[in-house]
Specification:
With 304 residues, the protein is mainly alpha-helical. It folds into 2 domains: 173 residues; 86 residues. Helix content is 69%, strand content 4%. It is built from 11 helices and 3 strands, in the order ααααβββααααααα. The longest helix is centred in the C-terminal third of the chain and has 49 residues. The protein is elongated.
């Protein structure tokens, strides 16, 4: 075969794969057959394949994931598609866009290990819900999801789902399907059977999600506790300064008055030093939280 013939043959194969989905739809080929053909022609990048493995996806979960041809962006350029679906209006780590695929934010900070894996699984479950469940299956799953959610003791998830209910109620069922599937340990036999189709070990995935939440919650709780201490200590310092002013105005005549005054001065110095120490700790926690958020967004301070 000459070079021209080889080129024509290669072009023909390319055009066949490019237009095969349309050809199959026209001829009435089933969706499962189309998906198998699509997967046969898809070679996942190493990073995507590794992410699926680390997220504990089963063969079925991996199939759904690959069918979305996931894109991993080092910066938030590709995640502009996610902005309209971000109900929290905060950090967007990924999204599933019907007809376009899954887009994921790259996270490299070791403190946030597991974040990309949980996000990938979350978005894969969106694809499951919208593309791989029948109407009757969704109805049954929705019933179980609401049962678990109504009895869930998780203020953060409760608040988050309420945001979706307020802004776009049509997203609630799919979000419940993704959040509960990746972040809640106890779901009951029906849901465990459902999610078992897509994960080989969902418990490990949930542990990853909880690790990240505990990291942020720990910082927030510590900062909140220190903030309360600072308010109380500030009141003590103000009261002691007031007492010293009053003693000075009244005059320090006796030795007992002088000793009491000096004791107040010493206590004021100690309280002020401790107050400043707490302020430093509080600022350190604030910086750590900001650093983690920067890592999630992949935006350095110089880029802001």
């Amino acid at each position: 075969m000459n070079h021209q013939s080889k080129t024509a043959s290669s072009l023909g194969r390319y055009l066949l794969w490019a237009f095969l989905p349309t050809i199959l739809v026209v001829r009435g080929i089933s969706k499962p057959v189309m998906q198998r053909l699509q997967l046969m022609n898809y070679n996942p990048p190493t990073e995507v394949s590794r992410l699926a493995t680390q997220a504990n996806m089963s063969d079925e979960g991996r199939k759904v994931f690959y069918l979305t041809t996931p894109t991993i962006e080092a910066e938030k350029v590709g995640l502009k598609l996610c902005s309209s679906s971000n109900a929290e209006k905060t950090i967007t780590l990924g999204c599933y866009v019907s007809g376009k695929g899954i887009f994921l934010q790259k996270v490299t900070d070791e403190r946030l290990a597991g974040t990309m894996q949980v996000t990938a699984a979350h978005e894969m479950l969106h694809a499951v819900y919208h593309e791989h469940l029948s109407g009757s299956e969704r109805t049954e799953i929705d019933r179980e999801l609401l049962r678990v959610f109504d009895n869930l003791n998780n203020p953060r998830l409760k608040k988050l789902i309420q945001i979706y209910r307020d802004r776009n109620p049509s997203h609630v069922s799919s979000e419940l399907h993704s959040f509960l599937g990746t972040e809640v340990a106890e779901l009951g036999p029906k849901l465990e059977q459902h999610y078992g189709k897509y994960f080989v070990d969902r418990a490990k995935l949930v542990a990853m999600a909880q690790q990240k939440e505990q990291l942020f919650a720990g910082i927030e709780n510590k900062a909140g506790g220190i903030d309360q201490q600072l308010k109380i200590l500030k009141t003590h310092i103000n009261n002691r300064e007031k007492t010293l002013r009053e003693m000075t105005m009244a005059g320090l005549v006796t030795e007992d008055q002088k000793r009491l005054y000096n004791a107040h001065v010493q206590a004021l110095h100690e309280e002020t030093a401790y107050y400043n120490q707490l302020v430093g700790t509080y600022n350190g926690l604030s910086s750590e939280g900001s650093s983690l958020n920067d890592s999630l967004q992949n935006v350095s301070k110089t880029e802001k």
